[in-house]
Amino acid sequence: MSEQQQQFRALDELSYEQARDELVEIVKILELGQMSLDESLNYWERGEELAAYCERYLDGASTRIETALEKRNSAQEDAEEVLE
């Protein structure tokens, strides 16, 4: 493992917001283009990991919202049936 990769925190230690913010910073760093190829690749790989982590997190949040909405709609339908 290179020294550059060792400075990154483990993904499981990051909140969604921390991972997103780190990804934004990595994009800014890569856009500057002032690193060696190896350093750029290390940052790019980290960016890919962060993007995948954020996507999984958002997918999980979306599923939770859909589940909550389904439960609410089901409860409303049940309440309407009782009132009829």
TrEMBL record:
Q: To which protein family does this belong?
A: Belongs to the XseB family.
Q: Which SUPFAM superfamilies match?
A: XseB-like (SSF116842)
Q: Which organism is it from?
A: Corynebacterium suicordis DSM 45110
HAMAP family, alphabetically?
Answer: Exonuc_7_S
Primary location group: cytoplasm
- Pfam families reported in the protein's UniProt record: Exonuc_VII_S
Top-level division of the source organism's lineage: Bacteria
**Mind telling me what this protein is named?**
Exodeoxyribonuclease 7 small subunit
Location in or out of the cell: Cytoplasm
Q: What is its EC number?
A: 3.1.11.6
Task: Give GO MF terms, alphabetically.
Answer: exodeoxyribonuclease VII activity
Q: What class of enzyme is it?
A: hydrolase
